[in-house]
Prior knowledge:
The structure is a homodimer.
Chain A: H1 3-26, H2 40-48, E1 54-55, H3 68-86, H4 96-108, E2 119-122, H5 125-136, E3 142-146, H6 151-158, E4 163-167, E5 169-170, E6 173-174, H7 176-188, E7 193-198, H8 212-224, E8 228-232, E9 256-261, E10 273-276, H9 282-293, H10 298-309, H11 313-338, E11 344-345, E12 353-357, H12 364-373, E13 376-377, E14 379-380, E15 393-397, H13 403-427
Parallel strand pairs in A: 1-13, 3-4, 3-7, 7-8, 8-9
Antiparallel strand pairs in A: 2-10, 5-6, 9-10, 11-12, 12-15, 14-15
Helix pairs in contact in A: 3-10, 5-6, 5-9, 11-13
Amino acid sequence: MTPHETELTAETQTALERADAAHRHEALFSERAHNIRQSAVRDVFDISIRPGLVSLAGGSPSLTRLPLGLVAETAQRVIMDHGMEALHYGGGKGTLALRELICEIMAEEGILGASPEDVVVTTGSQSAQDIAAKVFCNPGDVVLAEDPTYVGALNTFEAYQVRVEPVGMDEDGLVPELLEARIAELEAAGATIKLLYTIPSFNNPSGITLAAERRQQIVDICREHNILVLEDNPYGMLRFDGKPLAPLRADNPDDVIYCGSFSKIFSPGVRLGWALVPKHLYRRFYLAAEAVVLCPSMLNQMLVTEFFHSFDWRAYLAESRAVYAERCAAMLHALGEHFPAEATWTTPSGGFFVWVTLPDGIDTYPLLHESIEAGVVFIPGAAFTPSDAPSSKLRLAFSGVAPEQIREGVRRLAPVVRAAVEANARYAPAAPAAPGRD
Amino acid sequence: MTPHETELTAETQTALERADAAHRHEALFSERAHNIRQSAVRDVFDISIRPGLVSLAGGSPSLTRLPLGLVAETAQRVIMDHGMEALHYGGGKGTLALRELICEIMAEEGILGASPEDVVVTTGSQSAQDIAAKVFCNPGDVVLAEDPTYVGALNTFEAYQVRVEPVGMDEDGLVPELLEARIAELEAAGATIKLLYTIPSFNNPSGITLAAERRQQIVDICREHNILVLEDNPYGMLRFDGKPLAPLRADNPDDVIYCGSFSKIFSPGVRLGWALVPKHLYRRFYLAAEAVVLCPSMLNQMLVTEFFHSFDWRAYLAESRAVYAERCAAMLHALGEHFPAEATWTTPSGGFFVWVTLPDGIDTYPLLHESIEAGVVFIPGAAFTPSDAPSSKLRLAFSGVAPEQIREGVRRLAPVVRAAVEANARYAPAAPAAPGRD
């Protein structure tokens, strides 16, 4: 046997051993592990950083107006002056100073008088959703969610073997009558409904906002059926015009778990979010948080606290709103200019996303590959519903790219969409008007 | 009605509403939520930062020799030069640069040739344990663990309704025969054993190290019974003398999930750890990580990578080992000087902890309150076992306090221990020699 052959044999040996281990270990996965899926958004994340591509995929905030010098100087100061604290373990709830700042921020959007004692700082707001699922959901329990809803939350809930049941929206957000009907239907079928997961302001992916006059109604319906509201509000402060709408939590401190985030108003790179939790649920919630990460990063907590104290974050948010408003307008204008008449889309009043609907019969998932060829990425609509059915929708994010890039991206995407619309009209059977439904 | 009366009524009203909500929501908790407990270590965490107390409780690393100026300067540079990346979202596995650094660090302790492709960066190594429980354990499944073991891991596993079954140790760590017997017993009773959770080097809380000659034997037993090894090795590099012992993972890439951490070798404040995962388990593991936090903090990842590249971390670890060796020696000496003859303790060869055993019949939990009165805190032994039985052990951490403080702490603790030993000898029935057991 030559040395080369020995090498091959050793390699084969390793491969065989691994195959054997893989086979043996297959039996070790938990039931929930089979529910853990790749998020389509994350799939596209890796692709979208390729040079030359225009990414309308990721919901990234614009950081271009952040005063990097001040952030850098603050980080340096925190480490020099308070390094022994910043580089150490902290308490599981987060620092009091940051929880106080969070209460100030929430006051700005209409949650008045929240106590820092009811806030848990989390590693991004996604982890607050993970904790909520952990603390409240047994396998098979139902979580209600807007249809469509945030794909990351779907992944988080599914990891706990939760059934996510979609509830319809119209242009004013969740429809109270549809929510009541859905609850009745599920209760009649013996389901245990634990939470309503909602993104009431500038819903991800649709950009739709729950109308002010529906907000109390939604909470009341949930209260009546003993369903907790899990309100995810990362974009609430980013309303283009006027004051933010008061969150569902504002007047309902006992029935709503509110999730906020520094990712959209400051930086996703510090991975800091929070949950404002009803007093009677706080202890279990925070202990569950602690069981996962012990404590949020002290360094990042102190950096955010010091930075927000040393800069005019209200003015920065006003600037950010103007940036996003301009980008949204650029996208809406480009869509009007380049997209075929058969496509429709939402007109968001804040947030990061426009939601495009193509004619029935088109599946936007295969279009993704063609659009990558054309130099642009988006997220296919199917990612945002718990069902596996094909979707004729697509999410376009205007938040992270400059207006000229947005125009270029829409321009590149238009022929792909146009071709799909034409092929669909030519080959698909004409959709019959559904009788009894309008 | 006076305004004062109205106010009282409103307050009463709020309290009544909250009580009602608390009552209604009690039914919403998941089954696992009832298993989520306060960690005794965290209980004491809040107490131990009171001024004047000597804390021998928390397993905090010593940061006094960290070059804070260089850390601060690095943070500033990362933000100034790479802020758009550092403050943004990153990939779910962690950055390639950090995963490469992690492979270099692991090589230093005997894991050669690990691929960055098999590493997942996590938010502290506790979250790697959380992910392992999530991916592998159904409610009722068994995880084997050393007796005693890390309280944080117990909390994490219990949050997944896992049965943690202790396996006995002697002064050379886990006893292979006891492991086999325990497995046989559990299998005979129909249990599904998924993982062996082990801290082989300088076990937390006992300070005991698994002897080199037992390591392969332990993995082989687990492999034979199709049990994955979850190796938690935060202290592995902190052996006082000589080279680190090769981790269980070193020669067993397919059967061991290895957890490492920057908390003990650099800083807990950045909340960064990692898991080195067998190739065939990697995808599920990393998707589960992503479902919780999306990605680890980019800022902290880039800070750690840059910092380790710009400073001689091997020399720093050598210095750290000397610091901990000196502190350990101070503690052992003080124990010899002040503790009663009835107390025994371990002599660790690395890590952060000494484990003290008092005579049978003493419960160290109530002693904690007396010791706080005396100006010193420790962690009672009962925290480190899954059972609720009282324990005559206590964990003393020497890692985070200077030698003179250690001596003062032991001096303050000694009279409390002495009084307990005397009271126990006076009132407790003499423990009969257990027949047939030695």
